[in-house]
C-alpha cells in the first residue's frame, strides 16, 4: 500500500472540518432557526428547503463540468479551496441575518441566502471528494484517507453541536436572533482558515495528462457506471434519513421529552461515530466494503427502533438517548463508505469509457446527494410538522407530537432501509477493483496520451 504522509492526512481531515463548521451549523439548525427564531411557518420553511434542492439539480452538474475543465498550476481540485472559501463563509453568515421585513420578503431572503450557501457548498465540498482520487491511486489508502476525512468531519460536527446553542444563548443574552447572528461568524472564520491550510498542503500526485475535453464529455463516464449509480441512490437515501434525524432532534427533545437541555448532548453524540470510522479499514479488510457499508446502515435502523422503544415506554430519556447514540455510532461506516468508494467509481468510469471525470462524478455522486438529502431531510419533516398542527414556542397537540415522532423516528428508519437495498448489489463491482487498477496502471504507463479518448 502506498502510504500518504501525516501532513496530507491531517490536511485532508482539515478540509472537512472546514466544510462542517458552516454546513453543519446550517443543516442542523436551519429548520429550527426559520420556524422558532426567524418566524417562518413550518410549511414555508420546508418549501424554502425544497426549492433550494431544485437548484441542486442544476448546479451540481454545472459545477461538475466546471471542475472537469479546470486546469491550473495547483491542479484540478485543489485551487477551489482558495477561490471559494471566502464566498462560502460569507453567505453562511448572511443566512442567519434576520432583516425586519414582511412575510413574503422574509421568505425571499431566506431562499436567496440558503440557495447561495448551498450552491457554494457544492463548489467547495466537491473538490474535497474529487481530490481523493488524485492524492493516491491505492484503493486501501483511499479508505484510510476517507477515515481521516471522517475524523475531521466528526470533529467539526462535535465542535458545532457542543458549542453552537451555548454560544447563541451566551452571545444573544436571551435574544436568539442576535445570538445566531453573532455565533456563525466564529465558525465562518475557522472554516476559511482550515480551507487555506488544506490548499497549502494537499498535492495532486496521481498523473492526469488527459487533454481538456468538450464540456459535456465527462457525462460519458457515467454511462454504464453501475457502481456509481449504486452510490448515488444509497447516498441520497442516507442523507435524507440522517438530516431528518438531526433536524427534528430539537423538536423531539424540547416538546416530546421536555428536555431542551439535552439537544447539544444528543447531536453531540455524533462524535462516537468515530468508533466505527476507526474500525473501518479493519472491517473492509476482514469482510468487504459492501458488508461494512451495510452494517453501518443496519446499525442506524436498530438505533431508530431503540428510540421508538424509549418513546413507547413512558418517554424513557435513558432509552431514547441509548438509541440516539447507537444510531450515531453506526453512522460512521454508513457515512464514510460512499465517500471512499466514489473514487473507485471514477476508476471504473475511466476503465470502462476511457474518460476520467472525478469532478463530475463526485459533484453529482457526493455533493448533490448530500445537499439534496439535506434539503429533503429538512423539508419533509417541516411539511409533517405543518400537516400535524405544529405551532412554535407553545405546548404541542397530540397530533403535532405524532408528527414530531414520525419525523424523528420513522422517516429516518424508512430511508435507511431504502439506502440498504442498492448497497446489497455492490459486491460484484468491488471484486473487480484489482483488475481495474492493474489495467489502468498499464494504460497510464504505455499510452499516457490516449487517456480521455474512447
Automatic annotation (TrEMBL):
One Gene Ontology molecular-function label: symporter activity
Transmembrane annotation, as ranges: 12-32, 38-59, 80-101, 107-124, 155-173, 179-198, 228-253, 265-284, 291-311, 317-339, 360-384, 404-426
Gene Ontology cellular component list: plasma membrane
Keywords: Membrane, Transmembrane, Transmembrane helix
Keyword Transmembrane helix: yes
Record Pfam families: MFS_2
InterPro entries: MFS_2, MFS_trans_sf, Na/Gal_symport
BP term (GO), one: carbohydrate transport
Name this protein carries in UniProt: Putative 2,3-dihydroxypropane-1-sulfonate exporter
Gene coding for it: yihP
Amino acid at each position: 500500500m502506498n502510504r500518504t504522509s501525516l501532513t496530507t492526512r491531517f490536511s485532508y481531515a482539515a478540509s472537512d472540518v472546514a466544510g462542517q463548521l458552516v454546513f453543519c451549523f446550517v443543516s442542523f439548525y436551519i429548520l429550527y432557526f426559520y420556524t422558532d427564531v426567524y418566524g417562518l411557518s413550518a410549511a414555508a420553511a420546508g418549501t424554502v428547503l425544497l426549492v433550494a434542492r431544485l437548484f441542486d439539480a442544476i448546479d451540481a452538474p454545472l459545477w461538475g463540468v466546471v471542475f472537469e475543465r479546470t486546469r491550473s498550476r495547483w491542479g484540478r481540485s485543489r485551487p477551489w479551496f482558495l477561490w471559494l472559501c471566502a464566498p462560502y463563509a460569507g453567505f453562511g453568515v448572511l443566512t442567519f441575518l434576520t432583516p425586519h421585513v414582511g412575510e413574503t420578503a422574509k421568505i425571499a431572503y431566506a431562499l436567496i441566502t440558503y440557495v447561495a450557501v448551498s450552491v457554494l457548498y457544492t463548489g467547495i465540498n466537491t473538490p474535497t471528494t474529487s481530490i481523493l482520487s488524485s492524492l493516491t491511486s491505492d484503493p486501501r489508502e483511499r479508505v484510510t484517507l476517507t477515515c481521516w476525512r471522517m475524523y475531521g468531519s466528526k470533529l467539526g460536527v462535535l465542535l458545532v453541536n457542543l458549542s453552537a446553542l451555548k454560544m447563541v444563548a451566551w452571545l444573544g443574552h436571551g435574544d436568539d436572533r442576535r445570538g445566531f447572528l453573532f455565533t456563525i461568524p466564529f465558525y465562518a472564520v475557522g472554516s476559511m482558515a482550515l480551507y487555506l491550510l488544506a490548499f497549502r498542503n494537499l498535492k495532486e500526485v496521481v498523473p492526469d495528462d488527459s487533454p481538456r475535453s468538450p464540456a459535456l464529455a465527462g457525462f460519458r463516464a457515467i454511462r454504464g457506471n453501475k457502481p456509481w449509480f449504486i452510490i448515488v441512490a444509497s447516498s441520497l437515501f442516507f442523507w435524507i434519513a440522517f438530516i431528518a434525524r438531526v433536524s427534528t432532534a430539537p423538536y423531539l427533545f424540547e416538546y416530546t421529552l421536555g428536555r431542551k437541555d439535552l439537544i447539544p448532548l444528543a447531536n453531540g453524540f455524533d462524535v462516537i461515530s468515530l468508533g466505527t470510522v476507526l474500525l473501518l479499514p479493519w472491517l473492509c479488510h476482514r469482510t468487504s466494503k459492501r458488508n461494512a457499508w451495510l452494517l453501518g446502515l443496519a446499525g442506524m435502523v436498530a438505533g431508530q427502533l431503540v428510540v421508538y422503544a424509549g418513546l413507547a415506554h413512558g418517554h424513557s430519556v435513558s432509552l431514547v438517548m441509548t438509541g440516539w447514540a447507537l444510531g450515531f455510532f453506526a453512522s460512521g461506516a454508513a457515512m464514510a463508505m460512499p465517500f471512499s468508494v466514489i473514487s473507485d467509481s471514477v476508476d471504473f468510469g475511466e476503465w470502462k469509457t476511457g474518460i476520467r471525470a472525478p469532478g463530475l462524478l463526485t459533484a453529482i455522486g457526493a455533493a448533490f446527494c448530500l445537499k439534496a438529502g439535506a434539503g429533503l431531510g429538512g423539508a419533509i419533516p417541516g411539511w409533517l410538522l405543518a400537516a400535524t398542527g405544529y405551532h412554535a414556542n407553545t405546548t404541542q397537540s397530540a397530533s403535532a407530537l405524532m408528527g414530531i415522532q414520525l419525523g424523528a423516528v420513522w422517516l429516518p428508519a424508512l430511508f435507511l432501509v431504502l439506502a440498504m437495498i442498492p448497497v446489497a448489489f455492490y459486491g460484484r463491482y468491488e471484486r473487480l477493483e484489482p483488475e481495474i487498477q492493474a489495467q489502468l496502471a498499464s494504460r497510464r504507463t504505455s499510452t499516457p496520451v490516449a487517456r480521455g479518448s474512447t
